[in-house]
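Same chain as my last thread, 199 residues:
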Amino acid sequence: MTRKLDTLQAALASELGAAAKSVVRDRGEITVTVGVADYGRVMRRLHDAPALRFVQLIDLCGIDYSSYKNAPWDGPRYGVVVHLLSVTHNWRLRVKVFAADDDLPVVPSVTEIWSSANWFEREAFDLYGIVFEGHQDLRRILTDYGFIGHPMRKDFPVSGHVEMRYDAQAQRVIYQPVTIEPREITPRVVREDNYGGLS
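reply #2:
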């Protein structure tokens, strides 16, 4: 396994050069972080270069790093993580890219390289609000068209903004502001002298 990862890491260094901001080896996997300006070119190179041939995109997802590992995160808030497979070389690779702007996160689309990225990018747009520039059909895929916000963002309220219900008088589904009153759950504290048989 080590020799295989050494070969992959050498091929990545040769093909990507300075475009790879960091290359991390951990738990038998390699993660490459690239800049958003180089992302499209790097992904095309990963697909086309004979030494790499990552012809299959396995997964693509968005991430909100606003509080990474339960601690403040010093860096861009939104990222995209892509998992690739090279069938030719039997290699797997993780690629990370961070959107430059936290207010409007934009990352180039890779649907022209891997058609399987289509629904993954739509999901990341729907749940995180990450815009994939160049995507031909970027619209919500999991939430309703009238949905407000992006539910996987860490600052999204637990109860949401709107709720929908069937209105018997109107004989249709209607949207209305959330009517759930937020409540604070306080655990019951038992204060007995002999609680649990202890004196």
